[in-house]
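Because showing beats explaining, we think one record worth quoting, sequence and C-alpha cells together, and here it is:
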Amino acid sequence: MNPAGHRSIDIRQLRYFLVVAEELNFRRAAERLHLTQPPLSRQIAALEQALGVALLDRAGPGTRLTAAGEQAWREFEQVVQAFDAALARVATLAPAPRHSLRLGLPWWMDMSAFATLDRDWRRATGLVPLEPQLEIGPELLAGLQRHALDAALIAMPQDLQGLSHVEVARLRHVAVVPADSPLARRRALRLADLQDGPVFLRFARRVNPALWAHYQRQYDVLGFKPAREAEAPGTTATIAQIAAGRGCTLLPTALAWQRYPGVAYRRLLDEVSVDLHLVFSETLEPALVQALTDQRALFQAAIG
C-alpha cells in the first residue's frame, strides 16, 4: 500500500462504505444515501483502490465483506464517530455574530412570497433574517459545500455528501403545453395524453442522474413513453419552444404562477412529484438547524 494514496480518501467515502457494509446490498444502500448505484459503486471502488485492498466480495449471488472489509467497518465507524464528535465540539464554540441566515432557494420559487416567509420566520424564532439566493439544485448544493450558503431547499434525490437534511414538501407537477394546442382545451390531462402530442422536453440525464432516474421511475410505473422526446434546452428556451407549439413538459405546480404568452398549465391527473428538502451546511449552528427544522411548515407555505 502507498500511504500517499490515502490522501485521496475523504470522509464521504467512509460514510458510504459504512452504509454498504450495513446493507450488503448496493441498491438499498444507494436508496438510503439518495444516490443511484453507479456513483456509489465508483466511490467504493475508489476507496478500495486508495487503500490497496478489497473491502467487498462481489462474487456470487450477494455482496459480502472481506476480512479487510470487516476490519474497515470497525475502524471506519470509530473514525466517522470521532469526526462527527469533533464537529459537534467545534460547533459549540461561540460563533461570530450572525447578521443573517443565507438561504438557498430553487430558481422557480415565487419571490413575492419571500417577504411573508422572512417576517413569519423572525416572529416565530426571534432569530436573524433570511438572506435569499436563487439557483438551480446543483449550484445550491455547491454553495452549501463551499459554505457560501447556510441552508437550501433542494429537490431530492441528490448526492448530499453527508449533509443533514429534512423533508419539507412533496411537489406535484403540472403539464405545460402550447396554449393553442388541443391539449390546452382540456381542464386536466393524463400523461397518456402527452405521449403522441408535441415533443416531450426534459433535462438531460447527465445534468442530474439521480433526479433524472427519480422521474424515470415514475414514468415507468405510469407507462409513460413519449413518442418523441428531446433534451430541454434550459428553462427559458424550453418555455419558448412550448409557446411556439414545438414541445410540452412537466413542471412543479409552484411554477404555474409564472404566466407566459402562448403557454398553458394544466392539472395532471397522474401523480408525478418530487420531494423538497431543507439541506444544512455542516457549519450551521445546531440551534439554527433545529429552528429551521421546527419551522419547515413556513417554507412549505411559501412554496405554495
About this structure: The first strand starts at residue 56 and ends at 57.
